[in-house]
Amino acid sequence: MSKKKWHRSLSLLMLAFVLLLSACSGTTTTDEGSEGNENSKESRKPIKVGVLASMTGPLEAYGKQSIQGFELGLDYATDGTREVNGQKIEFIVEDTETKPEVAIQKATKLLEEDEVDFLVGSSSSGDTLAVLPLAEEYEKIMVVEPAVADSITGSEFNKYIFRTARNSSQDAVAGAAAIADKGVKIATFAPDSSFGQDGIAAFKEAALDLGAEIVHEEYADPAATDFTSNIQKIIEAKPDYLFVVWAGANSPWNQISDMKVQEKGIKISTGAPDIAALSTMNALVGMEGFTVYYHDLPQNDINKWLVEEHKKRFDGTVPDLFTPGGMSAAIAIVEAIKKTEGNTDAETLIEAMEGMSFETPKGKMTFRAEDHQALQSLYAIRLEKKDGVDYPVPVLIRELTPEETAPPIRNK
């Protein structure tokens, strides 16, 4: 072979080798690029939130308020996009019917069939307590709203539970501050449920610390509509105050008025409820107590946005007792997703959410690291008549700060 032919053959061989390397390199780049695109697509999968609420049953109004608030909260926290870090946030609502066994079924469906990343709920403490073990079993964060039983972040607590709702002890601190003092005799009245039992236990602890005496405790069937015998027992105990813990449409206020409890020298105190229940409390004008929320009490930009937007979307109506709680739950989830950059692994979220502060319609909330209870403001109020309003309006006496209402840590 001539030297020229030999060089040409060598050049062709080298060129073929270079092309082979390029081809291999190109294949590798394509594969890596394809894998990168696949991961990118995976990261853009929507984040799913399963919301448990009483859309029927005695707490139907609370469920609907929470859902409206949650929807508004997602829009507020994402500037209307319902998207964080390129990921859409979707939510699926399931009706617990205010029945724990139904709540378990619906939560299981959300976790197994819908494969949600978060649970939120529910309106009933009984429903919520039934679902807590599922959050732990499936290792999913559950944001509790609006259920208040102390045991949720106390004896039944697990690390996957975070609560934006206030708990019974926070209510109790606020309620006791309004009426309890040395030598004051107090009777209590509540439904015979985890909500009622926990609420009264917490109130007793706070009231006794302030020197008051609990002279009678009365519990009624949560579904009752006739409270005559319960109220008569309270009258016979001759307290200075009757402190009532109640939730639901079957409230005792009309019968307390009909049986002239106040005319017998017994002052009434309670947490001011939602607007529908306030409409039955005209006989209690002048009462001092506390409230979780009334739409013109918090003075901040988020609450102003909430009130204005609620009026736009819901026929001119104002947000009610549990609307801001639903909004706060949504804001908390969005803030957590921002902190983890879209990572919904439970351990990563727990690390991000413990001690996390976030702004809400009620001001700043903070998830206490020890028990994941959100510390928050409550409001000492007096019920007063207001022109143009057909129910007693909660008027602010003073805002009770998150530090003042911080409840005992009960999950040890």
UniProtKB/TrEMBL annotation:
Region described as Disordered: spans on this chain: 27-47
InterPro entries: BCAA_transport (IPR051010), Leu-bd (IPR028081), Leu_Ile_Val-bd (IPR000709), Peripla_BP_I (IPR028082)
Keywords: Amino-acid transport, Signal, Transport
Secretion signal, residue range per the UniProt entry: 1-30
Residue ranges of every copy of the Leucine-binding protein domain listed in the record: 46-385
Pfam families: Peripla_BP_6 (PF13458)
Family: Belongs to the leucine-binding protein family.
The name this protein goes by in its record: Substrate-binding domain-containing protein
